[in-house]
Amino acid sequence: MEVELAVRAGIGWRGKHTLLLDRTGSWFFLGEVYTDLPLPPDAPVEEHCGTCRRCIDVCPTQAIVAPYELDARRCISYLTIEHKSAIPEELRPLIGNRVYGCDDCQLVCPWNRFAQPSSEADFQPRHGLERATMIELFRWTEAQFDERLAGSPIRRIGYERWLRNLAVGLGNAPGTPEVVAALRARADHPSALVREHVQWALSRHEALAA
Fold it and tell me: DSSP secondary structure string, 69-124?
């Protein structure tokens, strides 16, 4: 809804990936202020996507089914963040090593070459997260998850879904002894959701090793 409000407010135009774009790209946050002040409305801006379809072509799960039309059930951002139950098995290999969201459609957008890094400290990686391996993250205890992701939007998916997503990522990783050992260490996790995805990942590696 906030994207449509922004379009009508003249902040930008809706890209073919359904996100908001302006001439600096799409790497920004939207906020709303509700007021009864009689402010003059702004006119919508012209679209500038033209014939480009890079965002459509790059989508790993083909979730962008047509320009301006997204099937959220296939979107990796939805599956890894909003989806609360098991990730459909046929989509798990397509997720690759994405643990929290997917920005492929934004990464290939030509408008994002004009984006500027933020100087806001809250937007910078913390606790070495940008350098951590999936094995390291998969070994975190729930207490470590809560502590190290405090103040981060990642924390809202909860520890169980964090492990679910990492299990999928490890299932798609090269089948090294370290990866397999990390998965086996979680094979008897109390959560049925985690166990299901760990077993799937182990089955992938066993099939490749056979």
Answer: EE-GGG-HHIIIII--SPPPGGGHHHHTT-SS---HHHHT-GGGGG------GGGS
pTM score, whole prediction: 0.92
CB neighbourhood size of 132 (10 A) = 14
Q: Which two tokens stand for residue 86?
A: 């098991």
Which segment, 50-59, 122-131, 144-153, is predicted with the most confidence on average? 50-59
Give tens-digit pLDDT for 7-61: 999 999 999 999 999 999 999 999 888 899 999 989 999 999 999 999 999 999 9
Cα 206 to the center of its chain, rounded Å? 28
d(CA 70, CA 126): 32
Q: Is the dihedral of CA 108, 155, 77, 80 positive or negative?
A: positive
Give the CB-side neighbour count of residue 77, counting CA atoms within 13 A: 14
Provide the token pair at 143: 């207490």
What is the pLDDT at residue 129? 87
